[in-house]
Amino acid sequence: MVKTVAQSPLERNGLTSLDQKLAMAKRCSHEGVLAGAKAAAVATIATAIPTLASVRMLPWARANLNHTAQALIISTVAGAAYFIVADKTVLASARRNSFKQCSISNIEA
Question: Residue 38: enclosing H or E segment and its boundaries?
Fold first, then answer.
């Protein structure tokens, strides 16, 4: 007689499913890193030009914004752009992949 033992979801889906999910997660995070880096580069240029121009042209900015303040303004905007865009990209790809998983499970059922 063969005994039927309830399988865990990991055993039922197999390790290939887990490997696929890990590969998908790596791809999604890589997409987020690339999109964030592009956004940070654009934000750096878009912030540096007006900041440096204002320091040269405006007397208030010349008196109050030293090199450290200028670097802080530019790097803060670049960091914020990176994290915002990377987060949105990862969430969008996760949402897209979850809808794919739902459609696949509905087809199998």
Answer: helix 9-57
